[in-house]
Amino acid sequence: MLTKKRIDNKLKGYIKEHASKGYSKAALKKVLVAHGYDETYVDGLIKKYSQMQFVKTYAVMASLLFIISIFLFNFMPAKKQQQITAFATGNNKAEGCCISTCRQELKSSCSGTFIEKKCSEVEECKVKYFYKVE
Fold first, then answer.
1. 80-124 pLDDT, tens per residue?
2. HEC states along the chain?
3. Which of 41, 95, 114, 127 could be disulfide-bonded to 110 (CB atoms 3.0-4.6 Å)?
4. Residue 65, φ and ψ in degrees, nearest 5
5. 107 near 95, Cβ under 8 Å?
């Protein structure tokens, strides 16, 4: 004798097989009721099958959208960040080393020779110590 679980599994298999062949839910219901199954019981099985198909379809679509979105965001070119330097570019607003004072200043405020470098990079401003060994 078949148990309820085995009957359910057999009927679910029957519904799945014939629904995939193109039979409508009404046709499946009509055949199963004609074979002596309770109408509300068959309605419940068909409804569960429809819900499972929806969930499977939804899961596949959500997975595909997730994968596609990951690929789209990975291949989109990122905006290059502008590198900020200590020196501005411009005529009077350029910053660099004023050799007469060996200080970082704007070109407009330097009264002597001006070089667009850091003072630590200018040879004239490097302090050299000479030690005598006695």
1. 666 665 554 445 567 888 888 888 888 888 888 888 888 888 888
2. CCCHHHHHHHHHHHHHHHHHCCCCHHHHHHHHHHCCCCHHHHHHHHHHHHHHHHHHHHHHHHHHHHHHHHHHHHHCCCCCCCCCCCCCCCCCCCEEEECCCCEEEEHHHCCCCEECCCHHHCHHHCCCCCCCCC
3. 114
4. -65, -40
5. yes
